[in-house]
User: Which sequence fits this backbone?
């Protein structure tokens, strides 16, 4: 596996660990991945719930919590650290500004189109801006808007296919359609990136269901610069979620991987559980919503608070939450170290 560049940043291995909220990829996992030569990514979703320095001050705690995760990550690694920011977060702007001020290497922004992201850059900014999209159309739209309004092009593009975990950028009928398979959309997104080659080299990173070294080789041979992998890193010692959360992956079977309707108005992929089934059959979990943390959340009618459900699951309370997971997450067999995962991927890549 060869190194690749995002702008002037050289990344030793073509593996980006996808951001996982809430509380699944924090400083521990991100630093371990960065130490192995990949990009380690902290998810800042819910950082104001995880870090409650000043009770009730969700916005302040979110900023402080992100700074705290970055500080811990920097203590553990000199490698490349990114932050995943959901565009749908109500405090998206705060999170982007904090990352830029903290000189985070790379921001990955998904779950919505980050159309105004370059507006936050300062003349001395070094942070690279990478949108996460699920179609060539969205890639083109972002390039047009960024170029037209800010004379800036993305520093890389992540293309996430329908086998990803968490919130998905696809409609129900698209999920199984060959027209929307990652193998189909990657060449289309590569074409968009390629059309700017005289102005800027925009590396494309493919993610969603990539689980083995053989998968990595397949997508690199299609022309992507790197892959984004998430589920495979959940079942590591360094992953920031609880052991109970990790064990849901190890115990899951293929038929347990399912699609849910998230209160934020998107589909999501998760591991089936009693909570998921109860919600489907009409269970409503009493909630208060003091923070309105997600712009698109129908918090009045939502049957439960997704932030609380995800955080409770990450902390090990799977009766009151559930685990997001990619389509191949059921392949997990045991908890290993991040180094063991990298060694296995390298060996499979070489053998493929
Ligand atoms: C537990 C979990 C949480 C996730 N949370 C986020 C998130 O907060 N923001 C985001 O952009 N993507 C999120 N994702 C999507 C991943 O970053 C990634 O793109 C995708 O899952 C890759 O597919 P894989 O899990 O099959 O490797 C999440 C995925 C998982 C499994």
Assistant:
């Amino acid at each position: 596996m060869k190194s690749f560049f995002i702008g002037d940043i050289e990344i030793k291995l073509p593996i980006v660990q996808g951001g996982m909220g809430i509380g699944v990829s924090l400083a521990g996992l991100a630093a371990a991945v960065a130490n192995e030569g990949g990009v380690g990514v902290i998810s800042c979703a819910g950082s104001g719930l995880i870090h409650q320095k000043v009770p009730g001050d969700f916005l302040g705690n979110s900023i402080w919590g992100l700074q705290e995760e970055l500080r811990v990550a920097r203590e553990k690694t000199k490698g490349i650290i990114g932050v995943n920011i959901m565009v749908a977060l109500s405090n998206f702007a705060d999170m982007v500004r904090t990352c830029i001020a903290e000189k985070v290497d790379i921001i990955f922004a998904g779950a919505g189109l980050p159309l105004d992201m370059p507006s936050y850059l300062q003349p001395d900014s070094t942070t690279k801006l990478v949108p996460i999209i699920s179609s060539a159309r969205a890639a083109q739209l972002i390039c047009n808007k960024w170029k037209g309004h800010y004379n800036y092009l993305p520093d890389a593009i992540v293309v996430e296919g329908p086998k990803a975990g968490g919130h998905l950028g696809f409609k129900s009928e698209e999920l199984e359609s060959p027209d929307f398979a990652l193998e189909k959309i990657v060449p289309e997104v590569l074409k968009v990136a390629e059309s700017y080659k005289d102005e800027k080299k925009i590396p494309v990173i493919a993610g969603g269901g990539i689980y083995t070294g053989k998968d990595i080789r397949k997508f690199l041979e299609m022309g992507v610069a790197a892959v984004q992998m998430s589920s495979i890193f959940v079942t590591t010692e360094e992953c920031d979620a609880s052991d109970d959360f990790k064990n849901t992956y190890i115990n899951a079977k293929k038929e347990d991987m399912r699609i849910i309707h998230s209160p934020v108005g998107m589909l999501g992929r998760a591991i089936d559980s009693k909570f998921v089934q109860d919600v489907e059959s009409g269970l409503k979990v009493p909630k208060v919503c003091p923070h309105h943390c997600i712009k698109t959340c129908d918090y009045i009618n939502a049957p439960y608070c997704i932030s609380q459900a995800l955080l409770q699951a990450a902390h090990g309370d799977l009766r009151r939450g559930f685990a997001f997971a990619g389509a191949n997450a059921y392949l997990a067999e045991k908890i290993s170290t991040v180094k063991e995962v990298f060694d296995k991927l390298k060996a499979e890549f070489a053998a493929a």
About this structure: The first helix runs from residue 27 to 35. The chain has a mean pLDDT of 96. The chain has twelve helices and 13 strands. Residues 18-21, 24, 43, 45, 84, 86, 110-111, 132, 160, 163-166, 207-210, 228-231, 324-326, 328 surround flavin mononucleotide (CB under 6 Å).
